[in-house]
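Worked problem 6 (solution included).
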Amino acid sequence: MSKLDASTPVHRPVAARRKLVSAASPAQVPARRGRPPKAQAKAAGETRDLILDAAEDLFSKHGFYGVTIREVAREAGVDTALVHYYFGAKRDLFDAVFLRRAQVWNDDRVAAIDRYAEAAGADMTLEGLLEAFLRPPFEWSLKGGPGWKHYAALVAQTNANPTFGGETMARYFDPAIRRLIELIAVVLPDASEVDLYWGYHNLSGALTLTLGETGRLDRLSGGLARSGDLETAGDYMVRFAAAGFRAVVVVVGLSPR
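Solution. The predicted structure is:
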């Protein structure tokens, strides 16, 4: 469906090369103008992706506060200075990790619900909208490789983080969510805005917990249901969320009109 995780690390003696260049005379090192050679740009991009992959893996397992830049560098097989060179401070690295796949999720989800709304027209249903909106993150987790599993776990952690989770989720996901709510309002014209926001809030928690694949469901059910069964989980979530949105709308007095 799209590009998968970064490939084998490319180790380049960046620091050593810089020392040699700085020590050489202008006659020895002619000035370069314009864009860097394609091979050099490609290697830099691969190194950057390698660092992002390592950080994503570690953040997804240990959280933002449980990971250091030094650990990311060691996992990526690069010098610590190179991590700072590409990303700056740890929070900047975290934001870069978060943004990389958020753009894919958001683009896919908005495109899917817009396509559905256009095709369905007046026959648009709540189940159809929710299925279109939820399908991309479930498909990426199912088919995108380990990096997307790590990212789903990272989003689950961030969504529940009281320190900066709300701000981070709002920054990267709100535009796509607002588009969904706009379309749900068309299907449920009697819903108040607060109904719709509470409905999505409950869906958001269920979505991120499910994509986190914590194994909690397996233990609770004694193996009858598996948290890794995302195909089944997606079907359940569509029906459950649709019923939930309808319930908060029809209960008189639940929210101010």
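Discussion: The first helix runs from residue 14 to 23.
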